C-alpha cells in the first residue's frame, strides 16, 4: 500500500507501492529450470533459506524485467513462504519493479542538494523528452524514468544513475544527451564505476551472479575507477599542506572497582545464605538492594503468611484452613 495513494512522488519517497501488478505480457520470458537452479544456488548461501528472498527477487527481475506474479509465486514456492509474505517485501523496496521496465533504468536525484543544483530541472527536461513521468517507460521500451530521493553521492551533485551506475555533476543538456544516447542503443561510460550493461544485467549482478559474457568484461567492471576528484579533495589538500590527523589515543582501561561487600563472619551460614548476603551487599541501586533483600532466606514472610503455614510440599494453604476443609468433608460423608 502507499502512504500517499495516487501520488507518484509519494510512492517514490516512501517506497510503498500501491500500483497494480500488470498482467504478464505474452512474450514474457519464463522462469526455467535454469532459473530455479540458480535460485537454489543463492539459497544455499544462507543458514535459513528465507534470507535469500532479496537476491531471488533480483534474479526474477534479471529474467523477466520486473517482479511478476509468476516471480512472486516462484519465490514463495522455493522458500516455503506465502505469496503475501513475498509481495510484502517486493512492494516495500523501490528497487523491485511491479511492471515491465525498459532496457535501462534512469534515476534522477531530486533530493535537497541535487535539487538545489538543478536535479529537478534535469528530471523535468528528461521527462519531457521521453513523454513519461515517474516509474513510466518510454514508448520504444528503451528507458524507464524515476525520481530518486538520494543516490548517496552529494559531492557529485546533481547526479543521475543509469542501471545504478553513476553519471556525476550533470546538467540539463548533458542529461538529455545521455538519455538520447541510451535510446540510440549506445552505452556511454559512467563517470566512475563499472561499464554500463542494462537493467536486467545489473539485476543479475545484484542477485550475486555473474552478468558478464566473458572474462574481459568481468575484469573491466572490476578494474573501473570508483572514486573521483570531489571525494578525494580533502585528502589532496591535506597532502599539499602536510596535514595529518592526530594519532588516536588509546587510554588504559580502568580496573573495575571492587564491590563494597560488608564483611560477614559466615559462621553457621549456609552457602545460599552467604550468596544472598553478597547479592545484597553488592547491589548498585536501592531498588536492586531491596529486591535482593526480599529474596534473602532470612527475610520475614509477608504479612498474612507464616512459615508454619507452608507444608512440606510447598503449599501456601494455611493449616487451619486445611483442617476446616477436611472437617467439612467428614460431615458430608456422615
UniProtKB/TrEMBL annotation:
Keyword terms: 2Fe-2S, Iron, Iron-sulfur, Metal-binding
Protein name, per record: NADH-quinone oxidoreductase subunit E
Annotated region (Disordered), positions in chain: 1-29, 243-334
GO molecular function terms attached to this record: 2 iron, 2 sulfur cluster binding; metal ion binding; NADH dehydrogenase activity
Listed PANTHER family: NADH DEHYDROGENASE [UBIQUINONE] FLAVOPROTEIN 2, MITOCHONDRIAL, NADH DEHYDROGENASE UBIQUINONE FLAVOPROTEIN 2, MITOCHONDRIAL
Family under the similarity heading: Belongs to the complex I 24 kDa subunit family.
High-level lineage: Bacteria, Bacillati, Actinomycetota, Actinomycetes, Geodermatophilales
Cofactor(s) listed in the protein's UniProt record: [2Fe-2S] cluster
Gene3D superfamilies (UniProt xref): Glutaredoxin, NADH-quinone oxidoreductase subunit E
Alphabetical list of Pfam families matching this protein: 2Fe-2S_thioredx (PF01257)
Amino acid at each position: 500500500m502507499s502512504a500517499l495513494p495516487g501520488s507518484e512522488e509519494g510512492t517514490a519517497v516512501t517506497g510503498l507501492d500501491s500500483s497494480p501488478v500488470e498482467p504478464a505480457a505474452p512474450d514474457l520470458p519464463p522462469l526455467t529450470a535454469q532459473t530455479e537452479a540458480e535460485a537454489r544456488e543463492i539459497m544455499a548461501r544462507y543458514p535459513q533459506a528465507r534470507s535469500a528472498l532479496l537476491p531471488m527477487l533480483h534474479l526474477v527481475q534479471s529474467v523477466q524485467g520486473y517482479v511478476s506474479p509468476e516471480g512472486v509465486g516462484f519465490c514463495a514456492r522455493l522458500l516455503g513462504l506465502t505469496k503475501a509474505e513475498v509481495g510484502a517485501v517486493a512492494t516495500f523496496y523501490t528497487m523491485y519493479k511491479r511492471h515491465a521496465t525498459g532496457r535501462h533504468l534512469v534515476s534522477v536525484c531530486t533530493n535537497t542538494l541535487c535539487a538545489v543544483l538543478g536535479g529537478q530541472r534535469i528530471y523535468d527536461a528528461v521527462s519531457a523528452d521521453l513523454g513519461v513521468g515517474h516509474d513510466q517507460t518510454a514508448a520504444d521500451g528503451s528507458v524507464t524514468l524515476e525520481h530518486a530521493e538520494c543516490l548517496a553521492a552529494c559531492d557529485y551533485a546533481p547526479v543521475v544513475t543509469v542501471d545504478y551506475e553513476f553519471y556525476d555533476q550533470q546538467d540539463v543538456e548533458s542529461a538529455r544527451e545521455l538519455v538520447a544516447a541510451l535510446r540510440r542503443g549506445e552505452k556511454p561510460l559512467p563517470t566512475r564505476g563499472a561499464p554500463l550493461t542494462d537493467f536486467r544485467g545489473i539485476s543479475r549482478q545484484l542477485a550475486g551472479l555473474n552478468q558478464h559474457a566473458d572474462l574481459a568484461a568481468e575484469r573491466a567492471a572490476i578494474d573501473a575507477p570508483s572514486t573521483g576528484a570531489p571525494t578525494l579533495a580533502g585528502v589532496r589538500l591535506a597532502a599539499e599542506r602536510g596535514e595529518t590527523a592526530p594519532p588516536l589515543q588509546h587510554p588504559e582501561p580502568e580496573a573495575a572497582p571492587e564491590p563494597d561487600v560488608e564483611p560477614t563472619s559466615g559462621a553457621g551460614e549456609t552457602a545460599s545464605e552467604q550468596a544472598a548476603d553478597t547479592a545484597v551487599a553488592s547491589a548498585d541501586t536501592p531498588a536492586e538492594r531491596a529486591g535482593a533483600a526480599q529474596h534473602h532466606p532470612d527475610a520475614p514472610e509477608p504479612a498474612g503468611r507464616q512459615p508454619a503455614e507452608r507444608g512440606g510440599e510447598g503449599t501456601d494453604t494455611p493449616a487451619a484452613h486445611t483442617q476446616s476443609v477436611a472437617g467439612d468433608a467428614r460431615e458430608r460423608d456422615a
